[in-house]
Amino acid sequence: MKGLVYGGPGKRSWTDLPDPVITDPRDAVIRVDAVTICGTDLHILGGDVPEVEPGRVLGHEAVGTVVETGSGVSGLAEGDRVLASCISACGICRFCREGSYGQCLGGGGWILGHLIHGVQAEYARIPFADLSTYRLPAQVSDEAAVLLADILPTSYEVGVLNGRVRPGDTVVVVGTGPIGLAAILTARLFSPAHIVAIDKAESRLQAAKVFGADVTVLADADPMTVVKSLTGGLGADVVMEAVGTPATFELCTSLVRPGGRVANIGVHGKPATLHLEDLWIRNITITTGLVDTYSTPKLLDMVVAGQLATGNMVTHRFPLGDIMTAYDTFARPGETGALKVVLSR
């Protein structure tokens, strides 16, 4: 088979690899039918995730068809069409028993495309397959389903739920790439008074309007003035960081009101300054998190019911074999207008 292999910072190749095999009774092997590229993959290529070793197949978001199951898999059969979650869960350890699957101590957590080979390949091994896949109803397309592997549950859990978005809140989302757009989409479920989107690219701010932002601000304009004008000078109730840079994190902490919440979603590869000299007196709550994907079944139900309109998220489509071109397109959103790219067989 072929897969997208990380060769060290800045290096990737679409190359021949051995087919995956069952190595544990709880494994399944899937044929990858649709896969996408995540901003986290770009962080890996930028050297921000040093745990990823050269030679690793990247990718943690896929829809596929089961081709083989281990003897310990009871809920899947050959031919089942499944969503492969970005998070694997042993189901036994302390954190899995609490629903904190991202912190799994039993060999799970975020391992696909991180600590083991991922899903940007023609076939993939999925550990803990019963707990780490979801059978898909026929009415949900591969393209819609693949967005449920990571970006929708990540934005919903780490951004919206951790940020405790409530009716009438003013919510600010800093960064309107796919994660930020998914945060806007799922924040709307809680009827905030305003959703303010901040980004460098005008094209992404236009996309943010489509997904539900009622106010957009270019990052090099004056976000502070805009947010204060909406809130009587107080600042935002909830600010979500969806980029992963020191500058955007510090911007978030400056935009939040006293008693407000900053929910960090972005992947950070460099230190960010926490200005406790300003924040200690303001009763600010700052949350971080790796997605647990406990919300995936609920989000899938909402997609089936038509309550989450994700169709505008995918802007570019490629055959799986064109993944090198897809990476080039996804990595230059300011030039290409790319939001989410999907590769299919």
Folded structure, characterized:
The model has no long low-confidence stretch (mean pLDDT about 95). The chain is globular and about 60 Å long. With about 350 residues, the protein is of the alpha/beta class. It has 13 helices and 15 strands. Strands 3, 4, 5, 6, 7, 14 and 15 form a 7-stranded mixed sheet that branches. The protein has a 6-stranded parallel sheet with strand order 10-9-8-11-12-13, with helices on both faces. A two-stranded antiparallel sheet has the order 1-2. Helix content is about 25%, strand content about 25%.
Q: Residue-averaged pLDDT, rounded?
A: 97
Radius of gyration from CA coordinates: 20 Å
Largest sheet, if any?
A: 7 strands, mixed
Number of strands: 15
State the secondary-structure class: alpha/beta
Helix and strand sequence: EEEHEEHEHEHHEHEHEHEHEHEHEHHE
Termini separation: 13 Å
How much β-strand is present in the residues?
15-25%
Q: What is the helix fraction of residues, given as a range?
A: 25-40%
* Stretches with pLDDT under 50, minimum 5 residues: none
Count of separate DSSP helical elements: 13
Shape: globular
